[in-house]
Amino acid sequence: MISGGRRNQTLAQHTTVGGGDQNSVGGDYSVISGGSENSTSNWFATIGGGSLNSVSGQTGSIAGGSHNTVTGWVGFVGGGYENSADYCASIGGGFRNLATGYYAHIGGGIENAASASYSVVSGGIEDTASAVHSAVGGGWQNHASGLASYVGGGQGNSASGEHATVGGGTGNIASQVRSVVAGGETNAAAGQRAAICGGTSNTASGNISFVGGGSANQTVGLGSAISGGQMNQALNQEAFIGAGQGNLVDGLQSSICGGAFNRVHGNYSVIAGGGGDPQDSNVVSGNWSFIGAGKTNKITGSYSAIASGESNYIENAAVPTYSNWSFIGGGRNNRVRGAYSVVVGGGGATAADSNSARGDYSFIGGGQRSNAEGLQSVVCGGRSNQSTGEKSFCGSGTGNTASGLRAFVGGGTLNNASSQDATISGGFQNVASGSSATVPGGVGNEATGNFSTAMGFRAKANHTGSLCLGR
Q1: Which of 271, 252, 251 minimizes the C-alpha distance to 261?
Q2: What are 229-246's pLDDT values in tens digits?
Q3: Where does residue 104 fall: left (phi above 0), alpha (psi -120 to 50 degrees), or beta otherwise?
Q4: Cβ neighbours of residue 318 under 8 Å, at least 6 residues apart?
Q5: Which of 397, 394, 440, 395 is closest to 418 using CA atoms?
Q6: Span 341-382, pLDDT tens digits
Q7: How do residues 409-438 score in pLDDT, each as one tens digit?
Q8: Under a CB-based contact definition with an 8 Å cutoff, are residues 158 and 176 in contact?
Q9: Would you say 17 and 8 are in contact if contact means Cβ atoms under 8 Å apart?
Q10: Which run of H or of E encompasses 40?
Q11: Extended strands (E) in 116-252
């Protein structure tokens, strides 16, 4: 039946042309309502109007537009120009869109393609959904090629992993199972269940790893995370970097909270911050160790800590484990080489100014150029003091030495307690070299006999149990 129009024709049974010009109905039970040069060639096909539209799929339909085609069963095109829908596929409108997948859908846009079963492109330009249940919300040149993958929008984004998601942005890639990039630019979620929230040129290649934002950050370890910053690397399992620049963690479950160019190589260790230029790195190589701040601080021992300062080291180059359980509070160029040892602070501008706690259980409170070398030895402060004997003590002053077992120098200058239980309370250039010898103070006194005492000025107690009072 032809209701009106001109040069219309019906070529099959039970067909209808409502009107228009040069329309041709070729399939049984098909309908063309109007328009011009539209054609159907299969059963139950429908064209509402428009021009040069063609339906060759059974039960297919085109509402309007121009140069649109439906080639598969129950295919549908709402309108637009040069759109094509295949078997059970649908296109709302737009320009040169192609829906070839089973139950695929394109809402609109320009030159979009939905080529897999149940794939969807809502709109945009040159977007593709090429895997089963994949979808692109919009944008430009986005691609969803993984099973049930999704790209929300943006430009040049790709979701190629199964159930992968890219929310938006530019040039982002989610390439593994359930990987996610929320946005940003040129980010890549390359690990299974890895996620990147945003930023630029970040990479999450470890499984279940995370990058919050920033630039050129990289998570490689399983469950590793970087919150932000620039050029940070979390390379081991459950490694963490909070922020900063150029930080690297390759220890198991270790962390850097911030700062610049810091390094954690030990397991379960932490650097809170500090560093600076590449040559200013804080470095932790020991396990369960901590650096709070400062720069060029280094720990090779385990269970050790440096609170702050500059160029402080807890290390024993010969046997690294000998510097375990040790602490440096701050200062500059201080060294701890013994186990369970402490330097609170002090030091100076060069390595020659350093305080050094070499003995196990040794302690230096402050000052500079002091050395606690004996087991359980102590230097409280001062300059160039030496406690080299076991359980020896130097309180303060300058150039004092306590080299005997349990030797004691309270203070003063250039005093030397060199024998067991020898004591010098203070003064200048005093010597206690006898066992249990004592110099209470003064200048140039010598207590060389065992249990002897010398005091005053240049007193010499040379015999056992002697007492000498100098003038």
Answers
A1: 271
A2: 999 999 999 999 999 999
A3: beta
A4: none
A5: 394
A6: 999 999 999 989 999 999 999 999 999 999 999 999 999 999
A7: 999 999 999 999 999 999 999 999 999 999
A8: no
A9: yes
A10: strand 39-40
A11: 120-121, 128-129, 135-136, 143-144, 150-151, 158-159, 165-166, 173-174, 180-181, 188-189, 195-196, 203-204, 210-211, 218-219, 225-226, 233-234, 240-241, 248-249
Average pLDDT, the chain: 95
Asked if the model's pLDDT at residue 321 lies above 60, the reply is no
Q: Where are the domains of the chain?
A: 172-238, 244-369, 394-471
Rounded distance between C-alpha atoms, residue 189 and residue 254, angstroms: 22
Reading the block at residue 72, the tokens are: 């598969």
Q: What is the largest CA-CA distance in the chain?
A: 143
Percent above pLDDT 70 for the chain: 99
Residue found by looking up tokens 């942005």 in the block: 169
Question: Which amino acid type is present at position 199?
Answer: G
Which of 343, 346, 413 lies closest to 378 in space, CA to CA? 343
Render pLDDT for 266-285 as a digit per residue (tens, 0 to 9): 999 999 999 999 999 999 99
164 in Cβ contact with 176 (< 8 Å):
yes
CATH topology of domain 244-369: Alkaline Protease, subunit P, domain 1 (2.150.10)
